[in-house]
C-alpha cells in the first residue's frame, strides 16, 4: 500500500540517502549500460554509411573514458547528492556522444528513435534519486534536443518533442510512485528498527542499543563519542514491595514515571537504557564527573517528589567516569557504586571514586 503520510522534514535527508543506498546498484549499472550500449549503435552507423563508419568511431567510443572514471570513483560515492550528479551525467554523456555522431551521418532520420530510448535510461538511473532531482536531470534531455537542433536541423524536430513529452511525464509518474512505495518501506523499517532497541513499557532503550553505541570491532564505546562520558546506574529502592503491595500494574506505572523523570532531566543526546527490572543505565555524553554527579542528584531529588498516586519512591544511583575501557568494566564499577549506595541507606548518589578500598 502506498502511504499518504509524508516524510518529516527532519528525516528527509536520511530518507533520500536510504533510498539511494537501496537502489544505487540499479542506478549505477543503468548508467554504465546506457553509455556502453550507445557504442553498439556503431553497427547501425556502418549500415547507414554502407561501409565501415570510420567518422563515427571517436564519437561513439569516446564514452569509454567516463565509464572508466565512474568504475574507479564509484566505491567512494557515499552521498546521494554526489551519486545523483554522477549517475545522471551518464545518460547525458550518451546523448552527447549520439549528437556528435549524428553530425557525421548522411541519414539522420533515426535520431528520433534513439532519443526516445534515452527516456528509459533516465527512468532506470532515476530509481535511486529524489524525484525533484529527476525532474531537472531528465528535463535537460529536451535542452539537449533543442540546442543540438540549432546546427543539426533535425527533419523530425517537432515530432521528437511531441513524442518526448508523454514519455517524460510517464517516467516521472513511475518514479513518483516508486518513491512513495519506498516511503512505506522506509517507515516500516524505521519502526521495526526503533522497536527492536526500545523497551515497550518505558520508552527507554533496551540493551540492544549497545550494538549502535559500541565500536563494531571492540567492546568499547564508539570513537566518535565525546571524550568525557559519565555512566549512571539507577535502581528503585524497595521496588519489590510496590509490586507485592499494589500489583504489577502499579509497578509498571512507577517505572514509567521514573523513566519520564530521567528523560526530563538529561539531554536528548544522552542514552537511557532499561538494564533489567527496575534498573536503568544512563550514558551522559560530554559530562565531567562533577556534572554527572549533579545530574544524578537532580534525578534523585526529582524522583523523590514524583506523585505516584500510591506512595513516595526513591532511587539509589551509582556514578562513574568512562575511561575508554571495555564497557563491561565500566558497568562493573558503576554497579559496585550503586550497591554501595543501597547498602548505606538508599536514596543517595555515590561516586565510584568515593568508595573506600
Give an overview in words.
This protein is of the alpha+beta class. The protein has helices spanning about 10-40, 40-50, 55-60, 65-75, 80-100, 110-125, 130-150, 155-195, 210-215, 240-245, 250-265, 290-305, 325-345, and strands spanning about 230-235, 270-275, 280-285, 315-320, 350. The chain has a five-stranded mixed beta sheet. Helix 5 runs parallel beside helix 7 (about 130-150). The longest helix has about 40 residues, at about 155-195. It is elongated. The mean pLDDT is about 90.
Briefly say what this structure is.
The chain is built from 13 helices and 5 strands. The protein is an alpha+beta fold.
- Helical content (DSSP H or I, runs of 4+): 55-70%
**SS field, number of helical segments:** 13
What value does the Rg take, in angstroms? 32 Å
Q: Which regions contain 5 or more consecutive residues with pLDDT less than 50?
A: none
Major sheet details = 5 strands, mixed
SSE string: HHHHHHHHHEHHEEHEHE
Backbone structural class: alpha+beta
Strand content: 5-15%
Q: What is the average of the pLDDT values?
A: 92
| Order of strands in the sheet with most strands | 2-3-1-4-5
Count every beta strand, where a strand is a DSSP E run of 2 or more residues: 5
For the termini, the CA-CA separation is 63 Å
Approximate shape: elongated
